[in-house]
């Protein structure tokens, strides 16, 4: 994945109007593979400073079970609400909220998915639309 090249493409574009800036970034997508297993936190190290601007799950490997969820976090701080995994295979579930106090992660920060499994299958892909920050 060519993430190391993104810092050269991302940055702040300064507007000529005094006191204003316009943020212009190249978006990129991170797909996190969440296997079917017991309730747990799954962590990934962030290779650059970034902001998560949209998140959804794609249910894989069969239907989910009641009360199964996936939630994206900045270490322990929730970025999204818990997304429902009690859906059929191939169903997309979008985050209902994104917390702007937690959406920015530093380089080397922890992008975490908290998988809650009450029964059935909890496997999914968590798809994150991000920009450099």
Summary keywords:
133 residues; mainly beta; Jelly Rolls; five-stranded antiparallel beta sheet; 1 helix; 47% strand
Describe it for me?
The chain is mainly beta. 3% of the residues lie in helices and 47% in strands. It has one domain: Jelly Rolls (Sandwich), CATH 2.60.120. The protein has one helix and twelve strands; from the N terminus they run αββββββββββββ. The radius of gyration is 16 Å and the shape is elongated. Mean pLDDT is 88; it is low at 1-7.
Secondary structure layout:
Blueprint: H1 6-9, E1 11-14, E2 21-24, E3 28-34, E4 40-45, E5 50-59, E6 69-74, E7 77-78, E8 83-84, E9 92-94, E10 104-105, E11 110-116, E12 124-132
Antiparallel strand pairs: 1-2, 3-12, 4-11, 5-9, 5-10, 5-12, 6-7, 6-8, 6-11
């Amino acid at each position: 994945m060519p993430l190391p090249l993104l810092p050269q493409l991302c940055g702040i574009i300064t507007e000529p109007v005094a006191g204003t800036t316009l943020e212009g970034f190249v978006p990129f997508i991170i797909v996190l593979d969440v296997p079917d297993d017991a309730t747990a936190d799954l962590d990934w190290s962030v290779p650059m400073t970034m902001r998560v601007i949209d998140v959804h799950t794609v249910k894989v490997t069969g239907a989910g079970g009641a009360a199964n969820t996936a939630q994206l976090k900045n270490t322990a701080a929730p970025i999204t609400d818990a997304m429902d995994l009690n859906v059929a295979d191939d169903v997309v579930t979008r985050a209902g909220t994104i917390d702007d106090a937690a959406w920015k992660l530093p380089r080397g920060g922890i992008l975490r998915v908290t998988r809650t499994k009450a029964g059935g299958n909890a496997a999914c892909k968590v798809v994150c639309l991000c920009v450099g920050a």
